[in-house]
């Protein structure tokens, strides 16, 4: 797919190939997330969606190609990994979890200000958990814990917000409340990229969609990306994947 670049791009992907131990998971992806856009990343299991988010967040080095942040820096990125990747046995309470959103400003051993504690309380109220400050995170339901992680994102105040399956295994009420938070971010012209599986939810709430099946099937306005033909093509590509594929030799997208 040809690279689309514009002056208001916040993140540009240049012929990006990603993988693990040199096995490619995402091939030759080019394109851009515009500043202030709200984009769903959709595709079959194993399509490379989480891998792409990790590369944008800077936690996975590309095998080839580049992720270029234009007008933003790594510290402007907030990343919500899948719940399965977060250890909730760690003995920490809700307030301290939310305050971790301040760490880039505070540093690991810096003192948290009274104002920052107030902001954490405001963020908890905004996600429907007022008064939960002293609960241990291990005592929360999955939905409550996701609300806490969204409160942390609110405190982080990031320009680019990456969400990996934020509503998977989350109840409908919590999903609706957290979608309101996503809408609020969009209204504030933050750039949001969310990996999602619920196509109807994407059609209803996400203006742009990248349909990924190891390579981009489509990256456009959601209705243009999620056509029956494109979804069929993504499924067909998933069925043809070879998990033991060797490094990709193609040099141009
Ligand atoms: N840490 C890892 N080590 C080795 N291979 C990995 C690792 N993480 C992912 N992969 C592989 O990379 C490919 C893409 O995985 P990824 O998790 O990015 O897909 P996904 O689209 O997010 O899938 P899902 O919808 O199931 O979460 C898969 O073949 C997967 O097995």
UniProtKB/TrEMBL annotation:
<dbReference type="GO" id="GO:0005524">
    <property type="term" value="F:ATP binding"/>
</dbReference>
<dbReference type="InterPro" id="IPR050153">
    <property type="entry name" value="Metal_Ion_Import_ABC"/>
</dbReference>
<keyword id="KW-0547">Nucleotide-binding</keyword>
<dbReference type="InterPro" id="IPR017871">
    <property type="entry name" value="ABC_transporter-like_CS"/>
</dbReference>
<dbReference type="GO" id="GO:0006829">
    <property type="term" value="P:zinc ion transport"/>
</dbReference>
<protein>
    <submittedName>
        <fullName>ABC transporter ATP-binding protein</fullName>
    </submittedName>
</protein>
<keyword id="KW-0067">ATP-binding</keyword>
<keyword id="KW-0406">Ion transport</keyword>
<dbReference type="GO" id="GO:0016887">
    <property type="term" value="F:ATP hydrolysis activity"/>
</dbReference>
<dbReference type="InterPro" id="IPR003593">
    <property type="entry name" value="AAA+_ATPase"/>
</dbReference>
<dbReference type="InterPro" id="IPR047748">
    <property type="entry name" value="AztA-like"/>
</dbReference>
<keyword id="KW-0813">Transport</keyword>
<dbReference type="Pfam" id="PF00005">
    <property type="entry name" value="ABC_tran"/>
</dbReference>
<keyword id="KW-0864">Zinc transport</keyword>
<feature type="domain" description="ABC transporter">
    <location>
        <begin position="11"/>
        <end position="239"/>
    </location>
</feature>
<dbReference type="InterPro" id="IPR027417">
    <property type="entry name" value="P-loop_NTPase"/>
</dbReference>
<dbReference type="InterPro" id="IPR003439">
    <property type="entry name" value="ABC_transporter-like_ATP-bd"/>
</dbReference>
<keyword id="KW-0862">Zinc</keyword>
<comment type="similarity">
    <text>Belongs to the ABC transporter superfamily.</text>
</comment>
